[in-house]
Amino acid sequence: MKTNFPILGIETSGELCSVALMVNDSEYYEVNILKKHIHSRKLIDMIDSVLKESGTDIKKISSIAVSMGPGSFTGLRIGLTAAKGLAFGSQLPVIPVSTFNAMAVVISGFLKPETEFAVMRNASIEDLYFSEFVSEGISFRTLKETCLVNKKDLEQLLSGKDLIFGDLTENFPVKRFRGPEAVDICRYAYLFGKDLLTFDYDYLEPYYLKQFIARVKK
Description:
Radius of gyration: 17 Å
Oligomer: single chain
CATH topology of the largest domain: Nucleotidyltransferase, domain 5
Helix content: 25-40%
CATH superfamily of the largest domain: ATPase, nucleotide binding domain
CATH architecture of the largest domain: 2-Layer Sandwich
Largest sheet: 5 strands, mixed
Number of domains: 2
Number of strands: 10
Structural class: alpha/beta
Order of helices and strands: EEEHEHEHEEEHEEH
Strand content: 25-35%
Shape: globular
């Protein structure tokens, strides 16, 4: 089911801070900054930039799509807070998008139908996020829901798998994939977000999977 345009997309689940405005299924405006710890300083300016560049008023967009994780605790919180604030101020619905699902749509577009593949992303020194999918053209089917896995179990988990995408490369044949970008969040929202639209902002929480533990220097 497809939702309407234009869609404002926000992606802050990793080091990439990304904002996009998808005007239609072939036209979009996007700003990306790949740098650690800049989300809180740059995100609002980036949103303002894509709106100005496209000549679109915030009140004229159809919805705000935001990456919900898994990913960085701080990054996800910043992205969702910005999405909620803009949505509340302009009375717009929010479309919560699974980060790994958005990645799966992008990857599936380059694979033959019925091709199985795995996606993983670094979570900490000891853990990573992991999921398995099978491509279905512009869509996909989930074989293993996204979960938190200890890196000690990675070799057994990846045994026999040829297509692995992610941001880890040590000792495994992983195809480097840093994404998604905000335009991928928009595209997922356009294709599959109609049933995810919500005005219940207070109930939206990032998909952390991993408990946040504050570290204090001694």
